[in-house]
Amino acid sequence: MNSLTRRRFLIGSGVAGAGVLAAGATAVTLPELMNAAQDTPLADGAGVLVVVTLYGGNDGLNTVIPAGDGAYQDARPELAYQPDEVLDIGEGLGLNPGLSGLKGLWDSGRLAIVPAAGYPKPDHSHFRSMSIWQTASPETQTRTGWLGRWLDATGSDPLGAVSIESTLPPLFAGETTAAATLPVRGLKLPKGKLADAVRALGTPQPGEDPQRARVARSFADLMRAAEILGPPAGERQPDEAEDEERDNGASAGGKGALGAQLDVVANLIEAGVPSRAYSVSLGGFDTHADERGTQQRLLTELDGALTPFARRMAGTDRGKQVTVLVYSEFGRRVRANGSDGTDHGTAGPMFLLGQQVRGGLAGAAPSLTDLADEDLKHDTDFRDVYATVLDRVLGADPTRILGGHTGRADALFLA
After folding, report:
1. What is the pLDDT of residue 402?
2. Where are the domains of the chain?
3. Where is this region: Disordered (predicted)?
4. N or C, fewer C-beta in 10 Å, the chain?
């Protein structure tokens, strides 16, 4: 099975080649984020966007499933789910059985699905298609990401957006600004008497000069960061081979990598860190062979990360301002290949969830018989979704950021 990981995409995409990625952008530290939360906390009522990238090309037809459609069953005799296997959402569609938590969000009206998102003249290349999604520029190649341009337009503060990954994704690279990066490594500090001593160093003393007070505050911030962000996601970081294996789906769902990323995001939001946008990711969706089991494991991991995150955010004032956007670079072909998998396709679903989202289907499900060169036709331009998110969540002018694109998908949000 071919494996596409975020690392391979970043190497091959050519996006943001002006040294931003190579320089590592702004590698932020936990104390710096805690200082920012204290100095310039996230404003009350400020919208926050969390972007979830599914690398590899998630099969939309086995995610939002037309199980009762005879054309679907005929095209995928071994891969197709039966109507009694899917989680019914109406209109002849059902969610993959691995998405039981998202089905609960759907039932509560907090999950919106754009079933057939894409762009004109689609590209089957992972690298080109992901570049298009991350730059929001289907017609011409550009070196800046759509949220990187938003950063440029809002004052060039790298803490405006944070990638919870070791490498900055191109969507966060602007012309003059790049977002901060914070890999999921956790933070361990001493315990017992040594911990008490470190904590004591952060206790303010009467009559301290400003420099000493600042040093003391740094120790206090360090302890607070450890309490908020917790221990490392694992005892050690996976090496290249382990990362490739996990992203390939062999052990997907076992380590909960996406869940660890979203835990960090939730902690930062609740701490009042002023960042307005976050990026997390899950790989392994390039399912050319043995798709059904691999994809369902990956979707189960997605569900197991998104559902508790959404419920946690619903319980706080800051969390209620959070919107999650989930996408992949393309869907898959309608017809299964000869290896119990599917090949690169075009249109696929986007998910939005949050307390500000109007739940339900936004747009028409793709036809399985009215095809373009055996590929699904898109119903919604993904830039319409981006434009609406920029406006409704980040309070930005989308036409300025999206190169004059005027489409909108306002039905995705409550009035």
Report:
1. 97
2. 6-186+253-412
3. 229-256
4. C
| Class of domain 6-186+253-412 (CATH, top level) | alpha beta
Question: Parallel, antiparallel, or unpaired for β 93-95 and 111-118?
Answer: unpaired
H helical segments located in 289-410: 291-313, 382-392, 398-401
Query: 18, 143 in Cβ contact below 8 A?
Result: yes
Q: How far apart are CA 1 and CA 248, in angstroms?
A: 8
Alpha carbon distance 18, 173 (integer Å) = 10
Q: Which residue has the tokens 């360090």?
A: 222
Instruction: Specify the amino acid at residue 172.
Output: F
pLDDT at 144: 93
pLDDT band at 255 (very low <50, low <70, confident <90, very high): very low
Reduced to 3 states (helix: H, G, I; strand: E, B; else coil), residue 239 is coil
pTM of the model: 0.84
What is the per-residue DSSP string for 380-408?
A: EEHHHHHHHHHHHTT---HHHHTTT----
**To 10 degrees, what angle do helices 100-107 and 291-313 make?**
50
In tens, the pLDDT along 174-201 reads: 998 899 998 776 555 556 666 666 566 5
Q: Exposure string (b/e) for 219-252, b if CB count within 10 Å is 16 or more?
A: bbbbbbbbebbeeebeeeeeeeeebbbbbbbeeb
